[in-house]
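Entry, Tuesday afternoon. Goal for today is a structural model of the target with zinc ion bound, before we commit to ordering more compound. Inputs were pasted exactly as handed over by J.K., no edits. I checked the ligand SMILES twice against the vendor sheet because last time a stereocentre got dropped in transcription.
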Amino acid sequence: MTPPRLNELRCPGCQQISWFIDADYRGMDGVKLPFDKRWYTCPHCRRDHQGWTLGQQSPAEFLLQPSRSAPMSQADFDYWVGILRTHFPTHSALSRLGTTFFPFLPEEAEARAKALASAHPVIEMRDQDGARCYEPDLRIAREWLDVMKPGDSLTFWHRDGGFLQLTLDDSSYSGSCVNATGMAVSQALNLNAESTRTAIERYLSGEWTDFPRNRIADAGFLSRIWNQLIDRFSETPK
Ligand SMILES: [Zn+2]
């Protein structure tokens, strides 16, 4: 089933244009009944017909605005509000115009996606067996860390293609961080549990990856920065 949308149809009898609100897919059966096979009563010649010719169609989500999954520009929205006003002046959406009926703008969608990406710089956590967690938070990352056995590893995949990998050796962790270009930017051995948690926390917050990449092109400098960061949590196990 798809949402009902505005359809411009030409009557096969009198050739006049009329507008009908109808869904492309009306039911759950996955069958799309073509518009020329549908029966509509023509408001002009008053006859029931099949064989209508489809003209313009509003976006399927027009009447569902604001729709986060289907952003619409203000100009598009205004155009379809104009059609709605002209051909369906009593439609309930018109009484909600500007309050609960307004477009979810593409620029809002983009800002939202960016905010979401910066809130979740790590897109996936994966363990040594391939178990995955999408957009892990610190709580779940700690849970996974707590159940690691010697030889196990956790990999945090950054949205930019880099990753942080932590492996539990006998009694301490080792970590490596690889940037988006595949270059190992830092490695650490003998991390204790607390340092490992701190490393994960920083990586999940995006703190490690944000500052050097865009401003400093020099790889040597980048490595030094990374090593300084690693040093902050690289201690001998207690
Ligand atoms: Zn007609």
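The CA atoms of residues 16 and 24 lie 22 Å apart.
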